[in-house]
Amino acid sequence: MKTNPTIFSKLARRTTLAAAVFGIAVAFTACKNEVIEPEAIGMLAVTNASPSSVDFLIDSKQVNNGALTFGSKTIYFRTYPGSRTGEVRFAGTTADAYSKKFEITEGYYHSLYVISQKNATTQKDTLSYVFLRDEFTQTETGKAKIRFMNLSSDSPALNLVFETDTTTFNNIAFKGRTAFKSVPAKKYTLTLKNSVTGTAVATLADVQIDQNRFYTVWAKGLSATTVDAQKLAIKVDMH
User: Which domains are present in the chain?
Assistant: First the structure.
């Protein structure tokens, strides 16, 4: 049976945290017997999938304490629902490199991935972002749920293959992503393959996938770079 993919369903096993986030325990004042309503919020995590270090702002208020370096992320944090303006800046600068609105849904988790593409004329990174609502639905016994995103700007469409399992995520172009799929909980070797040629372009061994958890596996880096720290790789984030 599936449950709604809300903060309540994801944190069902963490009642203390859920209560802290939502104010689930209804409070009464001693003298007025007044009910304090829980605050309406959504949750958001920001990941930097761009080789450049960045700052991220919501409605002109910066959400990261230190610069978000390549591959780093914030924890999920509370934010008000509705239409919000997301602004990306190169770390330490004051001018927006990219600005766009996104919609926070009350009671849901959301993920935002800062990405970049090389400008063919200037050869400088052009920042933007991918925003999505996280659909955390009930997991099956002995399984986890995984989605795949291709955030490598100069790579072709990619397949993600799980060794010894038939689950595959095929033909995902840059900025593309899949829905969450159920995968048996165990240790895997993950391989990225060119979706046309079938050539393996990146591998990550000994990836432990635990039951009842949610993961985003994403293609990180660039296929053509000679900088080791920016080379195409597989990144696994547990939610």
Answer: 1-39 (no CATH), 41-134 (2.60.40), 140-239 (2.60.40.2890)
